[in-house]
Design brief:
The protein is mainly α and 521 residues long. It contains 26 helices and no strands. It has helices at residues 3-15, 18-29, 34-49, 54-60, 69-88, 93-109, 113-129, 133-149, 155-193, 199-212, 223-239, 243-259, 262-266, 268-284, 288-305, 311-332, 338-350, 358-375, 378-389, 398-415, 418-433, 440-451, 457-475, 481-486, 489-498, 502-520. The protein is globular. The model has no long low-confidence stretch (mean pLDDT 88).
């Protein structure tokens, strides 16, 4: 069993809960076959030691021979999956559907055609109720095969019904695939390029979106079709920084679950992600008045559902809880308790508790660094930024990589590390100069950065004022507001000009925005 497969086996065992492990051992030991008891011994060892140490295994379990290990590991992995599949067949409709399809094939092979058709009809209803069009098609194909080969007494009317049902399922599958492909492609573009930076980016994304968006009536779509449609709009409006429409379609996504509460259990992860996108749009629009109650709703959902969530759902929930827990600090400008909060996230990342992807880890480290920066803890700021700046991730979140390098330079500047500032200026300039389409705000910062070594102490405040005026002007343009949410260099400049902590400036701005939003509401 190759090393990678061995890792999969170890991770699978570590992710099983006590009841799953107990059920596996009960069903396996009942068989009593010697070779099967050997893989139980291997299971017990791996569960206890949580690592694959071949010499230790052979010493602790003398009945296992070295040449047996590859087959034992492979067999154990299959047996674990088989056991979990049996345990989860009443939890996941998709497993029950596939199991019934397998049973129908067996009945068909035994010549029990009517029994197979009865089971397929029952399974088709399950698939239709859970809106799994691909499963409906799989059932229909077997039904047509049986009806076409054997006389079952219902050929003509059944043939027409099967034809109509197949055409309907094909239409649904086709539309859903187009929408899911569009949603996934837009998300991929976002991961590669981030937000649109200029008119050229805007035209490219808009043309791509319009050319790939199928012409459909939303009311004709099933549940999944509507989710994919709203996802596509959410990714599109998020990328072009139209946060009002981003909020509109994210809320429609959530409303699907409110209108169909039974789907909150069936597709909980998608519901949690819908709440995330509502919160994200409100964060980008700086609407704490609406953000706060929605965040409370997310936490309430977690309290209610945590005990019944599977590992994937817990991972997604904690990701979103932590993301917006951090965002809340910036929206309120109150960073008290920020260190303790982000320490929880750092530990989760270091221990890889939730298997978050690279994108999430990069963003978390940047936001954690920003929290420390606002608190004046520059050492921890630099430490977390180094997890980004010490690596190069080609074609991946260039925006965050740019912001991280600039914030790292600012932190060294504030610490008075003159030698390091000179080095950081060169490194930052080298990186930013390679970006093909650098945003105006970053260009202005880059020009300022190159001048720093030549600016005298008495002229520094004057240069801060000039850059502040320039950036405030840029901030008013269509695609330039969002960078300032991630890198609030204007607040930093104001703190330098006024001689006060940057966290105080951000807090003052946050209170002003909250008061303005309350008046608008």
């Amino acid at each position: 069993m190759p090393r990678r497969s061995t890792d999969h086996l170890l991770k699978l065992i570590s992710r099983m809960n006590p009841s799953e492990k107990r059920a596996f051992k009960l069903t396996s030991t009942k068989k009593g076959v010697k070779n099967e008891l050997l893989f139980i011994s291997l299971f017990d060892f791996l569960e206890k030691n949580r690592e694959y140490d071949e010499p230790k295994i052979l010493k602790k379990i003398p009945s296992i021979k070295k040449e047996q290990l590859p087959n034992l590991k492979s067999n154990l992995y299959k047996q674990l999956l088989s056991s979990l599949r049996q345990q989860k067949r009443n939890t996941y409709t998709s497993i029950a559907i596939r199991e019934n399809i397998d049973y129908a094939i067996i009945l068909h092979s035994k010549g029990l055609y009517n029994a197979a058709l009865d089971l397929l009809e029952k399974t088709k209803k399950m698939a239709l109720e859970s809106q799994r069009s691909l499963s409906v098609l799989a059932v229909l194909e077997i039904e047509k095969h049986i009806e076409g080969l054997y006389i079952t007494g219902s050929m003509y009317p059944k043939a027409k019904i099967l034809k109509d049902q197949t055409n309907q399922a094909l239409r649904q599958v086709s539309v859903n695939h187009k929408l899911s492909n569009l949603s996934l492609s837009l998300y991929g573009l976002y991961l590669q390029y981030g937000y649109v930076k200029d008119d050229r980016d805007y035209d490219f994304i808009t043309d791509y979106f319009k050319n790939n968006l199928p012409d459909v009536d939303p009311e004709s779509l099933d549940f999944y079709g509507k989710v994919y449609l709203y996802q596509s709009y959410v990714w599109y409006f998020n990328m072009i920084q139209d946060f009002a429409n981003n909020y509109k379609y994210a809320q429609r996504w959530v409303d699907l679950y409110i209108d169909n509460p039974e789907w909150q259990h069936r597709e909980l992860t998608l519901y949690i992600k819908g709440l995330h996108n509502v919160l994200n749009s409100l964060f980008m629009a700086q609407r704490y008045d609406k953000f706060a109650p929605m965040y409370e709703e997310l936490l309430r959902l977690g309290d209610e559902q945590m005990k019944t969530m599977n590992r994937d759902q817990i991972s997604t929930f904690k990701l979103i809880e932590y993301t917006h827990g951090i965002n809340q600090f910036f929206l309120t400008g109150n960073f008290i308790g920020g260190s303790q909060y982000v320490d929880q996230i750092s530990q989760a990342i270091d221990k890889n508790i939730f298997d978050w992807d690279l994108n999430r880890i990069i963003v978390f480290n940047y936001k954690i660094a920003s929290i420390y920066f606002c608190q004046g803890d520059l050492s921890n700021t630099i430490s977390h930024l180094h997890t980004i700046t010490n690596q190069v991730y080609p074609n991946f979140r260039e925006d965050i990589q740019c912001f991280a390098r600039i914030l790292n330079l600012i932190a060294h500047f504030d610490l008075g590390n003159e030698a390091l500032v000179t080095h950081q200026i060169k490194a930052t300039y080298r990186y930013l100069s390679k970006i093909e389409h650098l945003q105006p705000a970053l260009k202005s910062i880059l020009i300022f950065v190159r001048k720093i070594p030549k600016i005298s102490e008495e002229d520094l405040k004057k240069e801060f004022l000039k850059l502040n005026i320039e950036l405030k002007s840029i901030e008013q343009t269509q695609f330039e507001r969002r960078p300032f949410l991630y890198l609030d260099i204007i607040s930093w400049l104001e703190s330098k000009i006024e001689g006060i902590p940057v966290g105080y400036v951000i807090s003052r701005k946050a209170k002003s925005i909250m008061a303005k939003n309350l008046n608008v509401s």
